[in-house]
Specification:
heterodimer, A: mainly beta, 4-stranded antiparallel β-sheet, globular, B: 5-stranded mixed β-sheet, 0% helix
């Protein structure tokens, strides 16, 4: 299993541009999450999904959109990029089953810079 | 979800045992205490989880007193590769995780 994969690894955007951060998991997890992490800080939840077709806002959803058309994929869309969105973005997934409660598996992250 | 409080940073020499304490005064009956580890430029990784008393795995031990208002992550004989940020979280079902700033552990040779 590849686990959680994210593309791209790095990206530089100009103010006002748009882009989609891709996230795919091959563990058949029904829960998926998007976090952002600013330097020296903990992770903040942007959006999450409890299954295909269902998404919900997290702590910092403004400026972002998500969709979940399949179990495997959970893309994050940035519209009209702003310097405040410069951050590292992590995608994660988890399953309701298993012996560990809400164990989340994280991808390697996408480092985004908005200039 | 219960808020957690843990030290911002800790330093340790190689080979020493490191104990990181976390307080979670408002933990609920159904909550579990979970610790994640994050290396630079990587996503967090689950390392240990417990409900009460003591849990041990190949990476760490987790001590939880009877009142469950605090917990201690113990890393035996740390090495340079244990340098990372350690997050203490209170987990309830499948609700989204809430990460604080964590404890930045620096292991010195």
């Amino acid at each position: 299993n590849a686990g959680v994969t994210q593309t791209p690894k790095f990206r530089i955007l100009k103010i006002g541009q748009s882009m989609t951060l891709q996230c795919t998991q091959d563990m058949n997890h029904n829960y998926m999450y998007w976090y952002r992490q600013d330097p020296g800080m903990g992770l903040k939840l942007i959006y999450y999904s409890v299954g295909a077709g269902i998404t919900d806002k997290g702590e910092v959803p403004n400026g972002y959109n998500v969709s979940r058309s399949t179990t495997e994929d959970f893309p994050l869309r940035l519209e009209l990029a702003a310097p405040s969105q410069t951050s590292v973005y992590f995608c994660a997934s988890s399953s309701q089953s298993g012996t560990r409660h809400n164990e989340q598996f994280f991808g390697p992250g996408t480092r985004l810079t908005v200039l | 979800l219960a808020k957690t409080t843990q030290p911002i940073s800790m330093d340790s020499y190689e080979g020493q045992e490191v104990n990181i304490t976390c307080s979670h005064n408002n933990i609920a009956t159904n909550d579990y205490i979970t610790w994640y580890q994050q290396f630079p430029s990587q996503g967090p990784r689950f390392i240990i989880q417990g409900y009460k008393t003591k849990v041990t795995n190949e990476v760490a031990s987790l001590f939880i007193p009877a009142d469950r208002k605090s917990s201690t992550l113990s890393l035996p004989r740390v090495s340079l590769s244990d340098t990372a940020v350690y997050y203490c979280l209170v987990v309830s079902g499948n609700t989204p995780l809430v990460f604080g700033k964590g404890t930045r552990l620096s292991v010195i040779a």
